[in-house]
């Protein structure tokens, strides 16, 4: 088997496509057979090599999951292991979520649809909720990247929204703590509607409401409160959201939220 300096086979290069990290031209035979659709990879690649990993622990499927549902489908038909993970526990499902590729997730799930593991559980649902080496699920990753369509696909197809990563954070924590203001649309509503989710605390003792206040997402904080978030939960620093409200000097920009809090039981006690 011909390998380049990165330990990649021609099939890895085919999956990478025009990725800038590819060194050297694609082999002529792979180039030739890539033209046209359908393309039966199994005619040109041995079953033994379909799941070979490069120096980073990635298979061709892992690279294809970044961008191309057609390539993912061809690899799956040729016998690629859809749930194989890298040394860091990253699967093709995690990679597709990171890239915001709901269409790739759809292809992956279609090949697992109806299959069950040894415990009788649905393989596709399990794959959508699988945790990587840091405990992150594809849903957490999609929420962190604010890939709304991908996150909605994951939730709609059974991804577990209550899983916590190694830091104790849920998908909701990641959505609220992302660098992009979360959209108060389907994904947001779906997560908030999950019983108990709004009041789960991470290892720092923060609920999603804490992160909403820390990031100055006061309109979303209001929605969390209306969804049942406990406003008086204190984190490991002993802070509830009222402490955060005044500590960050955001109170003057969001007097409507302060008025809402003032009308709630426990407000006077929290000021003491």
Automatic annotation (TrEMBL):
GO terms for molecular function: NF-kappaB binding. Keywords: ANK repeat, Repeat. One of its GO terms (cellular component) is cytosol. Coiled coil: none annotated. ANK repeats lie at residues 134-166, 204-236. SUPFAM superfamilies: Ankyrin repeat. GO terms for biological process: cellular response to tumor necrosis factor. This is Uncharacterized protein. It comes from [Torrubiella] hemipterigena.
């Amino acid at each position: 088997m011909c390998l380049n300096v990165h330990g990649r086979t021609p099939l890895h290069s085919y999956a990478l496509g025009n990725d800038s990290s590819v060194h050297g031209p694609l082999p002529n035979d792979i180039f030739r057979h890539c033209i046209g659709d359908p393309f039966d990879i199994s005619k040109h690649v041995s079953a033994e090599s379909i799941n070979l990993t490069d120096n980073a622990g990635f298979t061709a499927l892992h690279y294809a999951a970044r961008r191309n549902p057609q390539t993912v489908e061809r690899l799956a038909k040729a016998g690629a292991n859809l749930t194989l993970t890298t040394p860091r526990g990253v699967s093709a499902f995690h990679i597709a979520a990171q890239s915001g590729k709901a269409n790739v997730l759809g292809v992956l799930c279609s090949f697992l649809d109806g299959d069950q593991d040894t415990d009788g559980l649905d393989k596709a649902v399990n794959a959508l909720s699988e945790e990587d080496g840091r405990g992150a699920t594809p849903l957490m990753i999609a929420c962190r990247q604010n890939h709304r369509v991908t996150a909605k696909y994951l939730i709609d197809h059974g991804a577990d929204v209550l899983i916590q990563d190694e830091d104790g954070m849920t998908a909701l924590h990641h959505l609220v703590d992302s660098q992009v203001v979360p959209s108060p649309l389907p994904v947001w509503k779906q997560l908030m509607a999950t019983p108990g989710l709004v009041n789960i605390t991470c290892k720092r003792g923060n609920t999603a409401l804490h992160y909403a206040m820390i990031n100055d997402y006061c309109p979303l904080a209001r929605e969390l409160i209306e969804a049942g978030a406990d406003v008086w939960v204190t984190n490991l620093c002993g802070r509830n959201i009222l402490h955060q409200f005044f500590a960050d000097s955001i109170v003057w920009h969001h007097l409507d939220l302060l008025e809402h809090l003032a009308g709630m039981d426990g407000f006077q006690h929290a000021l003491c």
